[in-house]
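User: Can you predict the 3D structure for this chain?
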Amino acid sequence: MSEHRKIGGGTIAPSVSARGAAARGALARGAAVLGTAVLSVLAVPSSAWAWEPTRPVEMVVPFSAGGASDQMARSIQGIIAKYELMKQPVIVVNKAGASGAEGLMDVKASKGDPNKLLVSSSALYTVPLVSKLPFNWRELTPVAMVAMDEFVLWTNAKSPYDSVQSFVQAAKAGQGGKRLRMGGTSSKREDHMITAMIEKQTGAKFIYVPYKGGGEAATQLSGNHIDANVNNPSESVAQWRAGEHRALCVFAQARMDYRDKVAGEQSWHDVPTCAEQGLDVSYQMLRVIMMPGGATPEQAQYYANVMKQVTEKPEWIDYMKRSALKAEFLQGKELEAFLEKDEKLHEQIVKDAGF
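Assistant: Here is the predicted structure, written as structure tokens:
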């Protein structure tokens, strides 16, 4: 119905000013509608027009179940499923053969497959460095570094080694004429390298016992089959909380930040650095997500966006706290620069260890 004003017994059209006001009101309403439409478009997740997986995504863990990498993969899987961050499900697959080489080579052989991810660590460099494996991390597509992991020197809580000093002294003297047994994940990997660094720093000599994962190394320490291990916090936290393991020191430049009580009256922050105890050895390991080579920038960015969302969820923050992980997120050029630098560091460590 057209707008008119009554005057006397007749009607007249709206005045010019009234028509102008009406026009301005219509324009304002139109602008509001247009603005709402624009905001609606901007609010649509990028996956609505960018690339996304078309079938279930396989997340390869090149280590056995129960280890730190496996725990991280399953935490990521659970968060993605809970918040529906991906339309396709994530399936965690453990490929722990040949000290992680099986998993690395599987992802390398999947070039061009955007429906596969790798949850890895410094094994990206250490495995090919010490085994002559025909693998280079540059053959894969970096997605995101999601954390840095610590290493702790653990002993059995019933052992006489209640300090770094007593442990090192026993290692140097030998126990009953025998070397102490140090357990760890795989041979010539991070755990073995830290053991070699301790030997170089102290002059002690260990019998290094490799296992398929940190979970097995923790179990063996609880059973007194080895004298110590250098597990990540998450790999031995259950035994620490149960009073089976003793945390002697953390191989880091500073103590861990987490101050909530974990094992009795002890928090992760209460664990001294090894340097504080006279053992000048430090080492931290990246936790990184990769995908096969040949991925497009859109595909890599899709997964980086998903991982960024994962790291912002309360479950991830709680997982970081429980596992005493250091928050660190890198992607793109910054991640590639970090990988280049970290690789050179590991080359020197491997050389010094004589591997």
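The chain has a mean pLDDT of 87. Residues 16-43 form the longest helix (28 residues).
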